[in-house]
Every structure is written in C-alpha cells, then in structure tokens.
Amino acid sequence: MKEYYLDDSAFIIQFNRIPCNSEANILNSRPFSLILRRYLNYVKDTKNPEFKWIVKLHFKELLSIYKALLVWEYDEVTSNLELIKSEENRYAFYLFTEGFYDYWRKLERFGFFSRTRFDDDQSTNQRLIDSSDIFSNLVLKLYRTISQKIINKNYHLLRQLPAGTQANLAIVSNPWTSMSPYTKLTEHRFVTSILIRPPLMIYSKSNTRTGLFKPLNTNPLDHLTINKNDFIVVAIKVGPYLTYAYIHQKFLKYAVTLGSLFELASFEAYKDKKPDLIYVYGIEDESYDGTYFHDQKEDIYIGFVSLNDKNDYFGYVKKMLLTLHNVKMIHEEKLPIHGAMFKLDLKNGKTKNVVIIGDSGAGKSETIEALRYIGKDLINSIEIIYDDMGTFDEVNQTIVSYGTEIGAFVRLDDLDQGYAYKQIDRAVFLNPHKTNARVVLPASDYHFMMRKHKVDLLLYANNYDEASSGVKIMDNLNDAITVFEEGMRKAKGTTSEVGMTKSYFANPFGPVQHMEQTKILVKSYFSKLYDHKIPVGVIYTKLAIDGYEQKGPHEAARKLLEFLTK
C-alpha cells in the first residue's frame, strides 16, 4: 500500500509508513505540502481580495513560514517579510490559516495501520486507538500553536475536535484462495478492526438508489481487470453468511459505515476461509454495473457495482449485499423478508414477536420508534431483531425468523425530532443536509438477531391509504398473499421512483429477480402461518401522506399496541 492517497475529497494515510510523532513530522511530510498547495490553488480560484497578496506567494514560501512559526515568534519570522508585517495583512494571514484548517477538516480523512497475521486483536486495537489519538492531538497542537502566534493571543475556548483522521482501519493479509478468477481480488488489505469517532458525517455525490440488480449467467470476474491496490476488504456477516466486501478506496467512507450496519467478522473467523458472498464495489467496467452471479462450482454469490458517481451512495452497498444474501436464501428454500422484526415485552406479561413487511419508505422503522415513544406505560422493552431484511425459516414445524444487520439505516426526517441526536454518540449520518438524509444507528446484537425467533404476528406496511387506519387482520389466505405479493407503496424519495409503485413481495432484492421460486416459498410459508393460527394483516403507517410523516407512524403504533394488549 502507498504511504498516502489524496484526491479532491479524501485523504488516506498509512501510519506504519509515515512517521507522525511530532508537529515537525507533519510539517515535513509530503501530504502536508500537497494539501497546502491544493488549498492555495483553491483560494486563488475564490479571488478573495483579502488574500490577494498571499496567493502571490509560492506554496513553498508559505510552508517555510509555517515551519518557522512552529519554533519562533511571529515578529521574528516576519521581520524580513514586508507583506505580512502590517496588522491588516497579519489578520488576513490568520484567516487564511483558519481556512486551511477548515479545508483539511472537510476532507474525508482515514488512517490505515498494518498488522501481521500473528498480532492479537487487543494489542492491535490499542495501537489503532493510540495512533488515532496521537495524530489528532498533534494536528490540533500544530494548528493552535501557529494560529495563536499569528493572531497574537491565546484561545480561551478550546474545542477538542477530531482534527486527525475520522476513522482508522487495521488491515492484514488474508490469502484465502488460489482459485481463478478470484485471485484477481486483493488478499493483502483485509480489515480486522475499525475505529470511528462518532458522530461521523458522510457525504456522497448521489442521494438515492436507482434500478434493479440483474443476475448473469457468466462470472464478470473472468473478464474484468481489477487493480488490487485500489481495494480494501471488509469481512462481515450478512445474516449467517461470511461476506467479503471489496470496497474501492474512492468509496472508503462506506467501508467504515459497513462496520456500523453489519457484524464485523473477527480475523480468526475468516482467516484463510472461502466466503459465501463477495461484493466488488467500484469496478471500472460499466457493462457489469449492478449485476451478480452465482458460481455454482464454488457456491459463491458475487455482485458488482461500478465506480460511476451515480453509485456514490451507501444504498448501493447495503442493497447489493442484501440481494446476494436473499438469492442464496431462496436457493436454500428459505423466504427472505424485506421488513422489520421486533420483540415486544409487555407489562401485562405477554411477549410478542412482530414482523412488519414493506419496501423502502413504507414506515417500518418509523412505526417501531413511534411504538417505543408512545408505549412507555404499557411496554417493558422493545428489542429490535432486524430492521430491514430478514428470513423466514421453519424449525420443528414452527415459522421462525432471523435477520441480516445489527444496525438501522433510517431516514432522518421520518424519525421523531431529536431521536437520532439522542443516539449521536453512536450515529453515522449520511448527507444530513439533503433530502433523504439517513442515519445508521445501533439496532440489535448479532447473536440475538440470529436466534430463531418464533413469529407471532405478520403485518404489511401500507404507507399510502389515508382512509384506513390501525391494524386489519385478514382471515383469507389468498387475500393475504395477494396483498403481500402485490407489494404496493407510495415512493418516499428513498429511491428514484415517484408516486405509487409495485414491487413483487415488497422486495426488489432477490424475490423480484427470482419470482417463480419465491412464489412457491410464499405460498408454503403463508399456508403454515395460517395453519398455526398466526395473525396476518395490514398496518396503515400513512408515512407517504403529506402531514402524516410522524403522525401516521404514531397512530399506527397506538393501534398496534391496542391490538396486542387486548
């Protein structure tokens, strides 16, 4: 791996290869010079008249001034520099320096720390923490030393911001295969642990996901050219499946976010092991964009999304991973569920496991959070089993369900005001300034999520019907199957769709692509639910109706609570 990587929006540093033990190390480093030069060019483009004299300086002259200020006082450094000596220009130089610091902090900043296959996790994590703390403190100290000398006063309000890297990743070699064509994929940059400093803000060039992922009959890896040095690998558990997510360094921010949404696999759990699922996010070849393939010989499901800016959105990471998971489940004759499941412990002594099915924006997560808010007097606890995608299975003639993710990827606007900020110490925010702003929040423990939870109630989330309200139980099996398979919803801006839409079984991530197989599974599992007298019906969230974005889920939650406490 290179010592560092820098583009217009991101900076990556390899801590093993660039010394960061002092402010002088930072000032003398190649990355500092490059970032200063880029900032100087940026200031030139703004044509700010206050900086007219500064932009005439070569970046090397500016660098020399900063290096001198680390040791000497401002007056001594500028004694022979007439341009900077005046009070007016001195203040302009201070503003320039503040702008440089802000320019640095607006970059996506990531650190890598290489470990060996024999290092233990605990010591590696401590080194990860130490390198992050040391670098952040050095950047802060450097900034304060220089800026206070320029402004000629000490700061009295100190903000201990994460001024170094936003996230650090420990990486290791994992040569898991000698099979062609998988040898095209890197084996040297597997992530073993991730350090983030929440709240983490992620910004992307796109803010919605478009289209369906398409199955192929041949493996794109046979034809693709892949630069191994461009990718890092996050080993995660998507449901029960070991998954290798190969993330292009351009999209490194999503590798960091993955660790908040899916269970990170330990090195011991994936060392030298073949995965069940592989996702390559950031290929150059557009012809394989949004495709996946089942390698039946190796029993590996592998998906691909291109480097195109339109794919710069976390939805493309999450949903391809879930598609691969769902297709494998279908082939194993288990029914993938696009929905949320939670365990409700009521104060009347009852415990209920509820599943709410619905496509993106149907109001699943919002209804659960509303239930948490309005049910304080009747509910002991609500435990999220899964928030977006799960599986129906049969154990001892009982329909059970388990999930895929430990986090929730939720629209910020649809949560109760302030809820996400109560979780701010653990949250990852995605495009918080835009429509369809999202937040990744903790939702479940992996071991709890993967237990086989008995299904006590199954509901379809209707987000568009203003005339109906509450919970409606359907007595007829075929009527229920029709509602669930029709998959109607009003688009909420979470994808490129608008207005009323239909998606088979409310799940465009596997069931749509493999409809005939899924239809057989839906008929089988729903029949068993009815045979065992498990209630199946509709819950009216009204989430897509203007004015009901919060009122609708609250009303639905109240009616659901009434139904469960009868």
Summed over residues and divided by their number, the pLDDT gives a mean of 92
CATH C-level class of the largest domain is: Alpha Beta
Q: How many β strands by DSSP? A: 27
Distance between the termini: 62 Å
Give me the Rg, rounded.
27 Å
Please describe what this structure looks like:
- The chain has 16 helices and 27 strands.
- It starts with a strand and ends with a helix.
- By secondary structure, the protein is an alpha/beta fold.
- It has three domains: 4-151, no CATH class; 173-331, no CATH class; 335-406 and 443-564, Phosphoenolpyruvate Carboxykinase, domain 3, CATH 3.90.228.20.
- Strand 12 and strand 13 (300-306) form a beta hairpin.
- The strands form four sheets. Strands 1, 2, 3, 4, 5, 7, 8, 9, 10, 11, 12 and 13 form a twelve-stranded mixed sheet that branches. Strands 14, 15, 16, 17, 18, 22, 23, 24 and 27 form a nine-stranded mixed sheet that branches. A four-stranded mixed sheet has the order 6-20-21-19, with helices on one face.
- It is globular and about 90 Å long.
Which labels suit this protein?
9-stranded mixed beta sheet, single chain, 3 domains, 566 residues, 26% strand, 16 helices, alpha/beta
Quick summary of this structure?
The protein is an alpha/beta fold and 566 residues long.
What topology does this entry show?
Elements: E1 4-6, E2 10-14, H1 23-27, H2 30-46, H3 59-69, H4 74-77, H5 82-85, H6 87-106, E3 108-114, H7 121-151, E4 167-172, E5 190-196, E6 200-202, E7 214-216, E8 231-238, E9 241-248, H8 252-261, E10 263-264, H9 267-270, E11 277-283, E12 291-295, E13 300-306, H10 314-331, E14 335-346, E15 351-357, H11 364-374, E16 379-386, E17 389-395, E18 398-403, E19 407-411, H12 419-422, E20 428-430, E21 438-442, H13 446-449, E22 453-454, E23 457-462, E24 471-473, H14 477-486, E25 488-490, E26 500-502, H15 515-531, E27 536-540, H16 551-564
Parallel strand pairs: 2-3, 3-4, 5-8, 6-20, 7-12, 9-11, 11-13, 15-23, 23-27
Antiparallel strand pairs: 1-2, 4-5, 8-9, 8-10, 12-13, 14-15, 14-16, 14-17, 17-18, 18-22, 19-21, 20-21, 24-27, 25-26
Helix pairs in contact: 2-3, 6-7, 11-16, 14-15
